[in-house]
């Protein structure tokens, strides 16, 4: 997680205290500094910071939100979809309170994926998920397309249009969002 990617401030209205975690402990001071700059002091104090590895969590929560975590943890070259399923199952059964929710929001596989890979993108092995690539969920949503601003506005707009046009017809999603509840 980068210093600008924390969802913790958005979750403050839902709880008395929010835990913001990262695998790399060096990222936490940057995230905390951003929260201190952006939030009123009483709200910033309600965020607790910890180092956590999603594959080896310590604790139980009412709500766990994994934003852009699973694709990096379960990279295409060193894990399988079964490994992803085991991680999700472990979180739901061992780290959610009864009635708690796990929400995942990760990178999806769009219709442009083969083209992007052909030109050298995705070499880091980050896993991009298809709709249905997760364990069956209590709810599942997907965002239709993604933006590629670094390629230039003209190319970006053309790719975005193609992505928006084809993605719904091919069962792809640029951002699968799944919801799991522990009953």
Descriptive report:
There is one protein chain. With 183 residues, this protein is an alpha/beta fold. The protein contains seven helices and six strands; from the N terminus they run αβααββααβαβαβ. It has a four-stranded mixed β-sheet with strand order 3-4-6-5. A two-stranded parallel ribbon has the order 1-2. It is globular and about 45 Å long.
What's the total count of β strands? 6
Largest sheet, order of strands side by side? 3-4-6-5
Query: Spans with pLDDT under 50 lasting ≥5 residues?
Result: none
Distance between the termini: 29 Å
Compute the number of helices.
7
Task: State mean pLDDT (0 to 100 scale).
Answer: 81
Large-scale geometry: globular
Q: Strand pairing plus helix content: what structural class?
A: alpha/beta
User: In percent terms, what proportion of residues is strand?
Assistant: 15-25%
Question: Nutshell version of this structure?
Answer:
With about 180 residues, the protein is of the alpha/beta class. The chain has helices at about 10, 25-40, 40-45, 70-75, 80-95, 115-120, 155-165, and strands at about 20, 45-50, 60-65, 95-105, 140-145, 175-180. The model has no long low-confidence stretch (mean pLDDT about 80).
SSE topology:
Layout: H1 8-11, E1 18-22, H2 27-38, H3 41-44, E2 47-51, E3 61-67, H4 70-73, H5 81-95, E4 96-105, H6 113-118, E5 139-143, H7 153-166, E6 175-181
Parallel strand pairs: 1-2, 3-4
Antiparallel strand pairs: 4-6, 5-6
């Amino acid at each position: 997680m980068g210093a600008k990617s924390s969802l913790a401030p958005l979750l403050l209205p839902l709880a008395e205290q929010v835990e913001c975690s990262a695998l790399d402990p060096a990222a936490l001071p940057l995230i905390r500094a951003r929260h201190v700059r952006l939030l009123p002091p009483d709200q910033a104090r309600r965020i607790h910071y910890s180092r956590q590895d999603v594959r080896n969590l310590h604790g139980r929560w009412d709500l766990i939100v994994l934003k852009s975590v699973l694709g990096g943890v379960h990279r295409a070259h060193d894990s399988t979809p079964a490994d992803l399923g085991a991680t999700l199952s472990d979180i739901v059964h061992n780290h959610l309170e009864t009635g708690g929710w796990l929400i995942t929001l990760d990178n999806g596989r769009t219709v442009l994926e083969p083209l992007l890979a052909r030109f050298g993108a995705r070499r880091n092995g980050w896993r991009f998920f298809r709709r249905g690539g997760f364990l069956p969920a209590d709810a599942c949503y997907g965002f239709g397309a993604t933006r590629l601003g670094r390629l230039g506005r003209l190319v970006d707009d053309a790719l975005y249009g193609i992505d928006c046009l084809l993605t719904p017809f091919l069962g792809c999603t640029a951002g699968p969002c799944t919801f799991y509840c522990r009953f």
